[in-house]
Amino acid sequence: MAGGEVLGDEGGSHQGEFYGDGRPARPVRRPCPDGRAGGTVPAMDSDVIVVGGGVVGLTAAVRLAERGRRVRVWSRDEAGATTSAVAGALWWPYRIEPEAEVGDWSLATLRVYEGLAADPAATGVRLVPGVHADTALDTLGAWAKEVEGLRQLAPHEVPGPYQAGLAARLPLVDMPVHLAWLRGRLEAAGGSVERHVVTDLGEAFAAGARVVVNCTGLGARGLVPDAGMRAVRGQLVLVENPGVDTWFTAADGASAETTYFFPQPGRLILGGTAEEDDERLSPDPAVTAGIIARCARIRPEIADARVLGHRVGLRPARAGGVRLEAERRPDGGLLVHDYGHGGAGVTVAWGCADRVAELVGDA
Ligand SMILES: Cc1cc2nc3c(=O)[nH]c(=O)nc-3n(C[C@H](O)[C@H](O)[C@H](O)COP(=O)(O)OP(=O)(O)OC[C@H]3O[C@@H](n4cnc5c(N)ncnc54)[C@H](O)[C@@H]3O)c2cc1C
Question: Residue 306: CA atoms inside 13 Å, Cβ hemisphere, count?
Fold first, then answer.
């Protein structure tokens, strides 16, 4: 499929990957391995099926498997073709609700990433210093007090045209590496991941699961169905790193244009956009030029950096915030929903996984 094709919410992956010249790096829509959407899967030896193999689904699966559950993950897409693989990905609660719970989920996740940062090559997690411009400490929730080293900068310390800013040392996650590591950890705990398109969550119960965990991100829009799910498009540019070793963000909540850069091994990720209800998966060249120009205002050397590629992803936003709750089905099965993490699924993944494990309990 051409990278420019627009997919419906049930139609395919919610990200696009492109070479530096804008050609699609791989087909965006993939069939089920058996060639049939929603093909039947043989009876299996597992009592939990997690539908969704992005960061939210894999993390929940790891938690459940390490508590002794026999867990299988069903995913329409390979991990590298999920929205999760597109993320930058900095730990920070951005474009996610509900506020009351997000703080706790984020802090629980922060503690896990701080531990994983001891082995960055394997886990993809590093603690990296940087600046959130245009952000004041007293506008953040109580969670911010628990983030060690987070401090308000004096105006002269903030780069670019910004008057305020925060300095912090936060987890920066190399998502392709981290997703592969999560899968390995799941497999080490006896779990498995399979490519399988689900057209009805009941299929997983019919396949023998007592518990089904729905981590389908934007796919929940058609699958649940949940009309509150909305795509928030994000476009990124990958460039050769001209020597930037700290991250920077300046997110204007009132605009679709944001400015950020994240140094990752082998590349500098430049962003970005937050375009509501825009589901185009191909990179827009005018947007690319705007992203590079905005980032170069902060670090001029970015203007001439060689472009390595482009990424586009659709953040799974939900009216009313993340849905994290269980429902008992008439047949006695337990269906746990864990989707709608907007712009911060990486930031809250472990906290949400802990809650999933609580909801599943001994079911
Ligand atoms: C440009 C961009 C930058 C971002 N930066 C950050 C950041 O810095 N920090 C941060 O915390 N977050 C960031 N995010 C947000 C983050 O990427 C998402 O919140 C997160 O990836 C959501 O994870 P998920 O597992 O719920 O969804 P996804 O990664 O979309 O995974 C959904 C899974 O469900 C599967 N699925 C869907 N439908 C079906 C079906 N019918 N049958 C079977 N399987 C199905 C898919 O195949 C996939 O495996 C960013 C997002 C974008 C787009």
Answer: 5
Domains of the chain (ranges plus CATH)?
A: 15-31+45-360 (3.40.50.720)
For residue 74, the SS3 value is strand
Pocket test for ligand 1, best of 235, 257, 346, 350 (most atoms within 8 A of CB): 346
Q: For residue range 224-249, list pLDDT tens digits in order.
A: 999 999 999 999 999 999 999 999 99
Q: Under a CB-based contact definition with an 8 Å cutoff, are residues 154 and 114 in contact?
A: no
Beta-sheet pairing, 275-276 with 267-273: unpaired
Report CA(105)–ligand 1 centroid distance (Å). Answer: 17
pTM: predicted TM-score of the whole model, two decimal places: 0.92
Q: How are beta strands 247-251 and 125-133 bridged, if at all?
A: parallel
Q: What is the pLDDT of residues 90-136, one digit of tens each?
A: 999 999 999 999 999 999 999 999 999 999 999 999 999 999 999 99
| ipTM of the modeled complex | 1.00
Asked whether 193 lines ligand 1 (CB < 6 A), one says: no
264 in ligand 1 pocket by Cβ < 6 Å?
no
